[in-house]
Amino acid sequence: MTDRSVPSSAASLAAQTTVPGTVRRPAGRALWRFVREQPFAAAALAVIVVLVLLSVLAPLITPFGPTEQNRSAIQQPPGGRFLMGTDDLGRDVFTRVLYGARTSMLVSVVTVVAGGAVGVAIGIVSGYFGGRWADSLFQRIMDTLMAIPGLVLLLFIAALLGPSIRNSIIALSLLVIPAVNRVARAEMLRIREEPYVDAARANGCGLPRILIRHGLPNLFAPLMVIASLLFAGVLIAESALSYLGVGTPPPTASWGRMLSEGTKFLEIAPWMVVFPGGALTLAVLAFNLLGDGLRDFLDPKHRR
Amino acid sequence: MVEYALRRALYGVLVIFMVTVFVFLALRAVPGDAVRIQLADAPGVTEEQIAERTAALGLDQPVLTQLFHFLGGAITGDFGASFSDGSSVGGLIADRLPVTGQLGLMALAIGVVLGVVIGMASAVRPNGLLDQSLRLVSVSGLSVPSFWLGLLLVTYLAVYAGWSPPLIYQGPAENLGGNLAQMTLPALALGAAAMASIARMLRSSLLEVLQSDHLRTVRARGAGRGTTLFKHATRNSLLPVFTVLGLQAGGILGGTVILESIFGIPGMGSLTFEAVQMRDYPVVLGCVIVYGAVFVVVNIVVDLMYGVIDPRVRYR
Amino acid sequence: MNTPATTTQPRVPVPGGREPLLAVTDLVKHYPITKGLLRRTVASVRAVDGVSFTVGRGETVGLVGESGCGKSTVAKMVTRLVQPTSGSVRFAGTELTGLRARELREFRRRFHIVFQDPYSSLDPRLRIVESVGEPLVAHRIATGAAKRRRVCELMELVGLSPAHIDRYPHQFSGGQAQRIGIARALATGPDLVVCDEAVSSLDVSIQAQVLNLLKKLQRELGLSYLFIAHDLNVVRYLSDRVFVMYLGRIVEVGPAAGIMQRPAHPYTDALIGSVATPTSSGGFRRSRVVARGEVPSPSRPPPGCRFHPRCPEAFDLCRVQQPPAYRLTGDRLSACHLRAGEAEGVRDG
């Protein structure tokens, strides 16, 4: 090596070490910023927390059991002992709404988490191999699932498998998987072009490490948005299934079942459909608002 | 554009084919023999009768042979015969599809009209009282399950107006009034999500246009806000309408299954639901394929309409 | 795939005659362009169209050319981030192009790459200790506390404080982030580091610091560099030999000083003309030649000499015949018909 002239003076490290800043950003501060920027979504989050607490603490809140029948109080209107009235078997509607929340939330959580995991796995592998045969194969399957209107597919699969909570989850997952796959794949197509993925390959990382270590964390934000919106959709779909009699089997309390039981008594006991449906709508609304708020919060371009 | 349309159409055909194969194989994978399930209730059924029936339905053949046989028939519009009464599945669907078509189009029309009106009204004075309350309406519209909304509407009218929709179907040609009396409530319930979606999109696209420099100039020259709004609303509402059609078509089509059952409408939805309950597999198969085909076609039309409405859209 | 005529591609003998650390021969990368309903391949982008060079142990080889000439694709093929269409990449005597994924991963500890944009080449969600330590984990060299220790050493090696290893990339300046990128490249103790526009996105004063760091590291660790840049000044400062690339091909080769003082190809002339050379630094260069027009698309390279549509000195022969690599005095090669008269011979393929 010959020594050549140096274009400028030698490196002075002190001059460069200028960026201080916190090492960790506290989660609390991000939450506070979310509350300030997206008050509606924050309120929706609070509603969700309250709903979850109510359903978890149901036995402490209500003196009745979810299947407890009061023969002396059949189809009582709301008020007095029965906050939301009673149904045709004398069961307390308020109690069943709380226990129904358990069923609906549980089915939805398991569906979104399990279906989401499968959707993410397919999506990131597909996205990483974008355009190659593995991608084409997966995407043709996803397109097939998405070509059938959601509720039709749901009814078809659930009826084939037979009514049970486990089978509802399987059927509902078939709606979640393609939707999550779409988001995860699009994000992964973007991420795989990032130089840090090239760097990871140069580091000697294998495919699993690239996808899990570099893919997942970088598509986490859009996933939260879609998960929240899907949760709302799954809540409706689960109720629709139970309403049609192919979802949660009786006597387990579920909002959809309560609606279908109430349909026969619309004119004489409207509270049997008003309250479970109202609870369902409130939960769906909360998750929709949360999803919208998260999207705006995480992506400034979406702000209206 | 033409090449894109052609490619899109070809892929659509492929997807419908894949849906057919998927549904067919899923039905065959179900545990339990279709014939036994069907004849199970009849007293004194012999093994010979079961074998005879199985052979008559072609169910003794290998699955792939059955699939090719079905595909061959489906191309010519022959979807086989119903297990329950032997009537042609194609004929059943041909009877029921127009009813569901009417319901779906009514839902869409209600959604578009209400959505455009609400979107425009919201944009007149953004963040005003009217805007705030209309936005609440549209946010709720997106979250209300259509079947619950349908039930609420019936309850409300029954309790407060003492009126219930007829439960016996009449075709629009027979008795238009009776037909609409039955169809309007489910259409309203189905169209609520589309309404909400259109209102939201139209509101934000109008606010964007109204803030543009061009329109500031127009209004500075003396044109009223209402007039400018109306002129631009008509042009700008087309894009949201088609976007929403693409987004909500699946919801409206799927929703017919449940709303037709509630309102006693003999369309594709109730046919599918009944067939699923009766395990009438040929009918289920035909219905799911037709739902899929309609959905695929709607999506292709929406994609192509984007290019017609907005020439800036470029197809890959 | 059509193999391009290799006769025009300069190959330079390795000083000392030892086997070079890296020997690249007739490297080609074509990207197909598809069209129509059936996605037929109608043409291809010839990003790299037959490139050969070597890098000796402890040597720095510069690769210079405008953006879009294919030099980054060369960098990615050498480090096997992109699979070549054809050609050979031999690293320490082993052919890399045919290696299976597992065999290749073994070799990856012996070469690494530093990218242009220091921020986007560091995963924004990972702490520095994770990014820099990743090669150690991937090659099962060190994890946990041992990894942290090694990352601290590496941070000191590149002139950063080991106290900062738990920070995220956005908490560093561009120059610091690029030092982190260099630290990562050095984690496994490689023989070869490919620097793909490694200082191009930095301020001039920071560029100098990073260049000095690279020089220091080479001295201390005996590294070889393939140094890729569009700026001849930057390349000259570090390189022993320089390869000039235009539209997927190498047009001139020679020692760094020689090329700067006396370019033997009109394109090199133009490249020097487009570089702002400080007047104070002795050899002042006047911008004699300025290339006209835009770089043609690599999907439809011009016939004959690829530079002829932009070359101020082009004549009839240039439009029809691709010039061979003429061997000139002083270890120089030039693929220009104008040099035919002074050539000592033609480098054969």
Automatic annotation (TrEMBL), chain A:
<keyword id="KW-1133">Transmembrane helix</keyword>
<dbReference type="GO" id="GO:0005886">
    <property type="term" value="C:plasma membrane"/>
</dbReference>
<keyword id="KW-0812">Transmembrane</keyword>
<feature type="transmembrane region" description="Helical">
    <location>
        <begin position="268"/>
        <end position="291"/>
    </location>
</feature>
<feature type="transmembrane region" description="Helical">
    <location>
        <begin position="219"/>
        <end position="237"/>
    </location>
</feature>
<feature type="transmembrane region" description="Helical">
    <location>
        <begin position="105"/>
        <end position="129"/>
    </location>
</feature>
<dbReference type="InterPro" id="IPR000515">
    <property type="entry name" value="MetI-like"/>
</dbReference>
<dbReference type="GO" id="GO:0055085">
    <property type="term" value="P:transmembrane transport"/>
</dbReference>
<feature type="domain" description="ABC transmembrane type-1">
    <location>
        <begin position="101"/>
        <end position="291"/>
    </location>
</feature>
<dbReference type="Pfam" id="PF12911">
    <property type="entry name" value="OppC_N"/>
</dbReference>
<keyword id="KW-1003">Cell membrane</keyword>
<keyword id="KW-0813">Transport</keyword>
<protein>
    <submittedName>
        <fullName>Diguanylate cyclase</fullName>
    </submittedName>
</protein>
<comment type="similarity">
    <text>Belongs to the binding-protein-dependent transport system permease family.</text>
</comment>
<feature type="transmembrane region" description="Helical">
    <location>
        <begin position="141"/>
        <end position="161"/>
    </location>
</feature>
TrEMBL record, chain B:
<dbReference type="InterPro" id="IPR045621">
    <property type="entry name" value="BPD_transp_1_N"/>
</dbReference>
<feature type="domain" description="ABC transmembrane type-1">
    <location>
        <begin position="97"/>
        <end position="306"/>
    </location>
</feature>
<dbReference type="InterPro" id="IPR035906">
    <property type="entry name" value="MetI-like_sf"/>
</dbReference>
<keyword id="KW-0812">Transmembrane</keyword>
<feature type="transmembrane region" description="Helical">
    <location>
        <begin position="183"/>
        <end position="202"/>
    </location>
</feature>
<feature type="transmembrane region" description="Helical">
    <location>
        <begin position="9"/>
        <end position="30"/>
    </location>
</feature>
<feature type="transmembrane region" description="Helical">
    <location>
        <begin position="103"/>
        <end position="124"/>
    </location>
</feature>
<keyword id="KW-1133">Transmembrane helix</keyword>
<dbReference type="Pfam" id="PF19300">
    <property type="entry name" value="BPD_transp_1_N"/>
</dbReference>
<keyword id="KW-0813">Transport</keyword>
<feature type="transmembrane region" description="Helical">
    <location>
        <begin position="238"/>
        <end position="263"/>
    </location>
</feature>
<keyword id="KW-0472">Membrane</keyword>
<dbReference type="GO" id="GO:0055085">
    <property type="term" value="P:transmembrane transport"/>
</dbReference>
<comment type="similarity">
    <text>Belongs to the binding-protein-dependent transport system permease family.</text>
</comment>
<dbReference type="Pfam" id="PF00528">
    <property type="entry name" value="BPD_transp_1"/>
</dbReference>
From TrEMBL, chain C:
<dbReference type="Pfam" id="PF08352">
    <property type="entry name" value="oligo_HPY"/>
</dbReference>
<feature type="domain" description="ABC transporter">
    <location>
        <begin position="22"/>
        <end position="272"/>
    </location>
</feature>
<dbReference type="Pfam" id="PF00005">
    <property type="entry name" value="ABC_tran"/>
</dbReference>
<protein>
    <submittedName>
        <fullName>ABC transporter ATP-binding protein</fullName>
    </submittedName>
</protein>
<dbReference type="InterPro" id="IPR027417">
    <property type="entry name" value="P-loop_NTPase"/>
</dbReference>
<dbReference type="GO" id="GO:0005524">
    <property type="term" value="F:ATP binding"/>
</dbReference>
<dbReference type="InterPro" id="IPR017871">
    <property type="entry name" value="ABC_transporter-like_CS"/>
</dbReference>
<dbReference type="InterPro" id="IPR050319">
    <property type="entry name" value="ABC_transp_ATP-bind"/>
</dbReference>
<dbReference type="InterPro" id="IPR013563">
    <property type="entry name" value="Oligopep_ABC_C"/>
</dbReference>
<dbReference type="GO" id="GO:0015833">
    <property type="term" value="P:peptide transport"/>
</dbReference>
<dbReference type="GO" id="GO:0055085">
    <property type="term" value="P:transmembrane transport"/>
</dbReference>
<keyword id="KW-0813">Transport</keyword>
<keyword id="KW-0067">ATP-binding</keyword>
<dbReference type="InterPro" id="IPR003593">
    <property type="entry name" value="AAA+_ATPase"/>
</dbReference>
<dbReference type="InterPro" id="IPR003439">
    <property type="entry name" value="ABC_transporter-like_ATP-bd"/>
</dbReference>
